[in-house]
Design goal:
Length: about 325
């Protein structure tokens, strides 16, 4: 693939950087045939960066990477509430945003992003352990402790390390489409999509057996999107009452069962639009939305575009 077509991703490693937070975007976006990205890991300056959890990093490049990147990830780091990153880092992040780069913080990387002022007046999240500290240190930020990630356009934040995967897959879906995101999720052995609105942690314990049963029901439903999938049908498969199913389902996914089914059907339609030449009417029948008119209605409501325009956009990317 020609270099000119590669999307440029920078991963900014700060002192105390968490290994998982650094590794997630580096691995998800690493250049391969299915992933048209060029990833460069950098620090405030080239050389050794002391990391968290017993690891350190030797980075070959400094803040010049932020002048080059289309997307900049700021992984989480230890003790983010003690002091802001060096002013040179803050200035480089602001300059990157000003020239049009997308900035994405994983976990406590949100503190570095908040130090720029770019989160002022915006929703943002971070690891649940630090949400109050973020709100106290940056009171102009609208901190939401009950979500996995927040997309504010060119400024994005996520909760703990695992939600960094959700954020990366969310970005992939927007850049390359559902097929590429699902392919990456399979490679990572990760859930293909979790709602950004899902709670960071379940407020009360869900029995392990019940959680496994609900996961099995979701997998079962994904293989039967063309069939009627009502609340009663789903609850029946999980062998619980519809009321229990609805309550636990929202805690587990961030969606009501019927919202989740609709998103799954829209996602299946997106992948068929990206990877096949089937007509809109055929795709609507395949994914359980009945008619092309019904697919267009829900497609526009969820994504703000039409199936035909979506197909044109992602056929150009492919």
């Amino acid at each position: 693939m020609p270099v000119s077509r590669l999307r440029r991703v920078g991963v900014l490693v700060l002192d105390g950087a968490k290994p998982l937070d650094v590794g997630i975007p580096a691995q998800v976006f690493t250049t391969r045939a299915s992933m048209p990205y060029d990833v460069r890991v950098c620090g405030a300056a080239p050389g050794m960066v002391t990391g968290g959890d017993g690891l350190s990093y030797h980075v070959a490049q400094g803040l010049d990477v932020l002048e080059w990147a289309d997307t900049v990830f700021i992984p989480g780091y230890r003790f983010p509430d003690r002091e802001d990153p060096p002013q040179a880092v803050v200035d480089a992040l602001v300059a990157a945003h000003d020239r049009g780069a997308r900035l994405a913080a994983i976990s406590t990387g949100a503190f570095a992003l908040a130090a720029t002022g770019l989160l002022d007046g915006r929703r943002a999240t971070t690891h649940w352990h630090y949400t109050r500290a973020l709100a106290a240190r940056h009171p102009s930020v609208r901190v939401d402790e009950n979500v996995l990630f927040v997309d504010e356009g060119r400024v994005l934040t996520s909760a703990g390390a695992a939600s960094g995967i959700d954020l990366c897959l969310h970005i992939l879906r927007g850049d390359l489409g559902v097929a590429a995101s699902n392919h990456a999720a399979r490679r990572l052995v990760a859930a293909p999509y979790r709602s950004g609105g899902q709670a960071q942690y379940v407020p009360r314990s869900v029995p392990e057996q019940l959680g496994e049963r609900f996961a099995a029901t979701r997998e079962w439903a994904l293989r039967r999107l063309g069939e009627p999938l009502t609340l009663s049908v789903l609850a029946g498969h999980a062998a619980v009452s519809p009321r229990t199913f609805s309550r636990r389902f929202v805690e587990d996914t961030g969606y009501t069962p019927m919202q989740w089914v609709m998103r799954a059907r829209i996602d299946a339609a997106r992948e068929l639009l990206e990877r096949s030449q089937r007509s809109v009417e055929q795709i609507a029948a395949d994914v359980g939305l009945g008619t092309g008119a019904n697919l267009r209605l829900h497609f526009h409501r969820v994504l703000g575009t039409t199936p035909s325009e979506y197909r044109r956009t992602f056929s150009r990317i492919a």
